[in-house]
Specification:
- The chain is mainly α and 188 residues long.
- It is built from 9 helices and 2 strands; from the N terminus they run H-H-H-H-H-E-E-H-H-H-H.
- The chain has a two-stranded antiparallel sheet with strand order 1-2.
- Helix 1 crosses helix 3, helix 1 (10-34) crosses helix 6 and helix 8 (152-168) packs antiparallel against helix 9.
- The radius of gyration is 17 Å and the shape is globular.
- The protein starts with 9 loop residues before the first helix and ends with a helix.
Length: 188
Amino acid sequence: MDNDTTKLPYFKRLKAHFDTVNRHRFEVMKNCFACGLYGQGLTHDLSKYSWPEFHVSVKYFQGTRSPYMYEKEHFGFSAGWLHHKGRNRHHWEYWYDMINGEWVPQEMPLPFLIEMVCDRVAACKVYQKENYTQASALEYFLSRPDRKYMHEKTAKDLEEILTDIKNRGEDAVFHDLKIRMKEYRKSH
């Protein structure tokens, strides 16, 4: 059998995708709780259960990466991703606005930046399984052109946090992020 899991029977893909989403959400929830983001941990990625996202994700399920990547490669865009990023503030793509006739990246508020960190760490754990290391999320970030399109401060902060995770581990960094969140809440 070739590695194209999109050829598996629909119900096998359905179960596998549902399990993957649930594992991912559980990992993000643990990370968010460790950072003091309880509400965001509970509600993270709920849109993945909506028909526009769930249907295409089952259809293009692979198990080793986001089904949206398959959809983009084969069709030039991902309807599921467009739906998802427009409803989830932990994605940097959400933070664009038209200013003076030009699309401009906006700085992500700290709670959503931290949720993005939690999301990236969790996604690496779920997709990389036993190959996951503390450097995985940083390596993924550095391998993509995302920082060119993010707000400069958001990109800088994200890289610093992911580098810190690589060097000191998730537990230590999430503890520090929880303290930062407490300070942020006091000032906002």
